Amino acid sequence: MFFAIGYEVKRLLRTRIGHLRLGEMPRGSWRPLTKSELADLRQSSSSRKTAKGGAEPRP
User: Fold this and answer.
1) Domain residues of the chain, as ranges?
2) How far apart are CA 34 and CA 20, in angstroms?
3) d(Cα 46, Cα 32) in Å, to the nearest integer?
4) Cα dihedral sign for 13, 29, 18, 24?
5) Does the N terminus or the C terminus of the chain have fewer Cβ atoms within 10 A?
6) Cβ contacts of residue 53 below 8 Å, gap of 6+?
7) Looking at the DSSP assignment, which residues form a beta bridge with residue 37?
């Protein structure tokens, strides 16, 4: 996003992704999603409607 308008990101701290909160996870770590988190993601992705007439995504 910032690259598109000419800004350089020097630091990025992600605290959550959608409804998923990262909490105290160390940088570079990962964990499996819980059944509840998976269900929430599936629900939110299936209920979204695709916008019509928008621009094509760029690689």
Assistant:
1) 1-25
2) 10
3) 21
4) negative
5) C
6) none
7) none
DSSP line for the chain: -TGGGTPPP------EETTEE-TTPPTT---PPPHHHHHHHHHHHHH--PPSSPPPPP-
Asked whether the beta carbons of 18 and 45 are under 8 A apart, the reply is no
**Residues in a beta bridge with 16:** 21
Residue-level length of the chain: 59
Q: Which residues, at least 6 apart from 36, have a Cβ–Cβ distance to it below 8 Å? A: none
- Which residues, other chains included, contact 42 with Cβ-Cβ below 8 Å and sequence gap of 6+? none
